[in-house]
Each structure stands twice: as structure tokens, then as C-alpha cells.
């Protein structure tokens, strides 16, 4: 649970900071405007401030915990902590009162409680063998691919280099993740098949 809180706080605060550093309209990002650092911050902002990325946080925390019940709790806690840290950092960076974000925080806390629990269980299920583990491992990369098709990270009318880089990273990571999940699934099935054949060849082996 403490690891979930720490991961959530770090992720939420970092996402808010990347948004600020990548914007020429925020005091924190003004000194970086037009530099390569602003471009790098924009890529990170596009990657981190997306639905699939937040979902990946809860899945990763659930995977780290292992047990499904604990994964559900850790996933929910991580998203709730991330939401709080995100808006607290936003308020500090932008100079707004935290009460300005109260309703948004409440809505996203409620969503984090429900979705974080489900995603935490998904993360814990990745460790399971068979089809369950495969489907759990495919959740984030497939979700990222679907979001890239339906809601690509394009906040501007024109496609910028940062957008191209961010989309390339997401697609590459999604393909590699799917490949890893399928390879692990097939390798496990081959191992089970080999073990069964070995036992059939030794009928007296316990």
C-alpha cells in the first residue's frame, strides 16, 4: 500500500510538472521555450498525461504486489494518490487555490477507486499462467493502441515533432509489449507440453 501511494504521488506530481515545463504559457516553462528541453518535456507530457499511462500505473502496482486482493487495493490507492498529487502540484505551479480543483479531484478520486481496483487486479493477474495471464498482460498495450487510434495525443491542429515522437514511442512500446506477452504465453505452453510428454515417457515417475 505504501509503495502504491509513493508510486502514485511521484507519477501525479511528475505529470503535472511535465505539463508545466512543456508549456510556454506557464512561468515554469517560459525559460525552456524553444529549446530541446521543452521538446523533451512535451514528449513526456504527452506520454504521461494520457489515459493508458494512468491505467498502466495501477496495473504496474498490482503486478508488483502480486496477490489480486492486495493488487486491487494498491491499484486504487495509487490512482487516488496520483490524482491528489497532480492537482496539488498544478495548484502550486499555476498559483491557483487548491479549492479551484476540488470538484475535479472528487470526480477523479471516485473513478480512481473503481478503475484502480479493477486495473490492480489485472496487474496481479499478469503473473498467472495461461490465458488469464496473457489477457492481463495485453490490457495496457492494447488499451494504448486503441487510445492512439480513437484519441491520439494531438492537442494542436498541426502535427508537431513532439507528437510524432510520442506516438512512435507508444506504438513501439505497444508492439513490443504484445510480442513479449504472446512469447511468454507460448513459451509457457511449450514448457507444459514438454513436461507432460516427459511424464508420459516415464510412467513410474511421480
From TrEMBL:
Positions of transmembrane segments: 39-61, 73-94, 106-124, 131-150, 162-182
Keyword vocabulary terms for this entry: Membrane, Transmembrane, Transmembrane helix
Keyword Membrane: yes
Name of the protein: Uncharacterized protein
Amino acid at each position: 500500500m505504501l509503495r502504491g501511494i509513493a508510486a502514485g504521488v511521484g507519477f501525479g506530481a511528475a505529470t503535472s510538472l511535465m505539463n508545466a515545463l512543456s508549456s510556454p504559457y506557464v512561468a515554469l516553462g517560459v525559460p525552456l521555450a524553444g529549446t530541446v528541453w521543452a521538446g523533451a518535456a512535451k514528449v513526456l507530457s504527452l506520454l504521461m498525461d494520457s489515459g493508458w499511462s494512468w491505467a498502466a500505473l495501477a496495473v504496474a502496482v498490482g503486478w508488483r504486489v502480486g496477490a489480486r486482493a492486495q493488487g486491487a487495493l494498491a491499484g486504487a490507492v495509487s490512482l487516488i494518490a496520483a490524482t491528489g498529487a497532480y492537482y496539488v502540484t498544478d495548484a502550486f505551479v499555476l498559483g491557483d487555490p487548491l479549492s479551484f480543483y476540488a470538484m475535479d479531484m472528487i470526480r477523479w478520486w471516485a473513478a480512481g477507486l473503481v478503475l484502480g481496483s479493477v486495473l490492480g487486479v489485472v496487474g496481479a493477474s499478469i503473473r498467472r499462467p495461461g490465458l488469464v495471464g496473457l489477457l492481463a498482460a495485453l490490457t495496457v498495450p492494447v488499451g494504448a493502441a486503441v487510445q492512439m487510434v480513437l484519441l491520439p495525443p494531438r492537442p494542436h491542429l498541426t502535427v508537431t515533432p513532439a507528437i510524432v515522437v510520442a506516438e512512435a514511442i507508444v506504438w513501439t512500446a505497444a508492439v513490443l509489449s504484445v510480442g513479449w506477452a504472446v512469447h511468454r504465453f507460448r513459451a509457457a505452453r511449450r514448457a507444459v507440453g514438454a513436461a507432460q510428454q516427459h511424464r508420459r515417457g516415464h510412467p513410474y515417475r511421480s
